[in-house]
Amino acid sequence: MTKPKQVTIVEVAEAAGVSIATVSNVLNRGGIRSSKETIRKVELAAEQLGYRRNTMAAGLSRNKTYEIGLIIPAMAGYYGQLAEHLQIEAHHAGYHLSVFSSGGFDPDIERRHLEVLLQRRVDGLICHGLAMGFETTRSIVNSGTPLVLINGWGWPEDIATGAVNLGFAGACLQSVKVLADHGCETICYLGSKRSKVIDEQRLIGFDAGMAQFGGGVSQEIVDTMGLDIEAYLRDLMQRHAKSVGVVAFDDHVALRVLSAANKMNIDIPGRLKLIGINNDYIAKESYPGISSWDIPYNDQAQMAINKLMHKIGNKAESGEDREIEVPLTFIERGTTKLQ
Amino acid sequence: MTKPKQVTIVEVAEAAGVSIATVSNVLNRGGIRSSKETIRKVELAAEQLGYRRNTMAAGLSRNKTYEIGLIIPAMAGYYGQLAEHLQIEAHHAGYHLSVFSSGGFDPDIERRHLEVLLQRRVDGLICHGLAMGFETTRSIVNSGTPLVLINGWGWPEDIATGAVNLGFAGACLQSVKVLADHGCETICYLGSKRSKVIDEQRLIGFDAGMAQFGGGVSQEIVDTMGLDIEAYLRDLMQRHAKSVGVVAFDDHVALRVLSAANKMNIDIPGRLKLIGINNDYIAKESYPGISSWDIPYNDQAQMAINKLMHKIGNKAESGEDREIEVPLTFIERGTTKLQ
DNA sequence: CTGTTAGCGCGTTCAG
DNA sequence: CTGAACGCGCTAACAG
């Protein structure tokens, strides 16, 4: 199956009895400056011959692809959701978004995808928290292709055009407040070093929250990597007779805690109060429902695409900050309050 | 920011003091037939100038893109996982996979993505259960681009080169057997009409299972669209004094059932036994763990890519069937058996 | 082994 | 409003 030769504008031009320039104008430039009659003829011919524009030729010729590349650590959960929204927003802006997963923060795969996208001459790049270091990234993206970061804090301006970050710190800070207000005598943060930068942000918020609202409340910081949640919980409950609060890295971790607690018959939210992040569907559908922080996917996607468009169109940055912070919204459910 | 002109092989050729053909040979054709010295010179020049091959020009020239497109209904859950594995397998085969989501079985978005991919002249297409009809699909994919379906049953040969399908029917059939063996007096299938074709497959298996193993066992078939699970469960338990079995559409639905049961203090697996499909992480991490069917992502991805490669390379179909069935594996957990 | 040349399909002048 | 001609960056013969 050698690729069957596809029909080109030349053939359409012949069939319609006009020149290729005319065909190009009618088909790919919104029918500017052409007589109704010509337009009809061309469109008919194209339709009948099954003409389909060759993106490569077009891109090559005008030095613009109308494609933007997205690299995320994985397809699951938050990343995948964001990808969907970005795809939609990109489409609204007249661009197409190609999605690549770096298979869970693998720097090598990440580099490979980046390289491929640049070889494609994408007009822009959106990346979620690059696993590569600054230097490596710089040496790769020095081509002048605009790069917008998602959840990337403190990147140098010569690499990233800007960043759109979720307000994890604020969410964690407020989580501590909620738990403290509910009378927890100790508050634990169950982190995940796998997502380094995000974990850091959450810790910043947690620490700030403890400093601000944690008077007389003890604290603990634990990483879930290889942690036996059940054992940890048992130990925790033994050490504290009254109410314990847990801020989980995300709803995934929260579910594990919840399940362990259910198994051990720990009273929720009486003895144990729990807050997750992401507002995954599991948060809504577990029992009890997990209090969590909802992510405004739409906003984040819109802002990211806008930022990119500004840069691509060389428009002024419209006075926005280089790093935008998008706040999350608390959704309270059964793990922190009685119905 | 007009795109800064990128360096081309012409410039590399000049810098290295050779012809562009030589540069092309060295850089993009695996160093075929070139003196060590020339290779060194060219590579050095390319390195220093920061040369990056232009995929569009290459693809245009050789009429081959080494890109394959994937369209899935969504990024979440099974689809996203599969996409990751497909990406890896595609890479092993020397291809790149661009992923597009049709935003939940939206035929319009699906068509748009398909169109874009064909305009890119991808070498192959992988689609998960197209929402479009046969006719529409045919009119779009008649370009001779090989198309492999994932979970597509009974598609005409002139459209799809082949299909790699998960053995949902077999899994449901066996689920019924398991529940019947465990002494359930009634067995319910909680479906989801949203995923039409998949729901059909599951029902086929369920029906076959009831016919084969359901002697003396009553059955019920319900759709979860807009269903009040808690109310349904209450009703179900009232109508049946002994053990009730539920085959859920997937682990997502299973979790909702599980949560409702936990809330109502229904004994699991004593009074209610539950089996999901997909073996999502929620199945492992809920309490009790949800018995489910594990999906061999690797196998399915490998087979899909192989099928596509065979067709692209015009190799014989190696005697394989056009529709391949990949079996699932039962993972038993707390919702069907006591620890 | 290396250089020359002719396209790949389309966008864009610039005369008519 | 139309048509001929050139160029985008690269590959694939074919000569040398």
From TrEMBL, chains A, B:
Keywords: DNA-binding, Transcription, Transcription regulation. Pfam families: LacI (PF00356), Peripla_BP_3 (PF13377). One of its GO terms (molecular function) is DNA binding. PROSITE patterns: HTH_LACI_1 (PS00356), HTH_LACI_2 (PS50932). It comes from the Bacteria. The keyword Transcription regulation applies. InterPro entries: HTH_LacI (IPR000843), LacI/GalR-like_sensor (IPR046335), Lambda_DNA-bd_dom_sf (IPR010982), Peripla_BP_I (IPR028082). PANTHER family: HTH-TYPE TRANSCRIPTIONAL REGULATOR GALS (PTHR30146:SF109), LACI-RELATED TRANSCRIPTIONAL REPRESSOR (PTHR30146). This is LacI family DNA-binding transcriptional regulator.
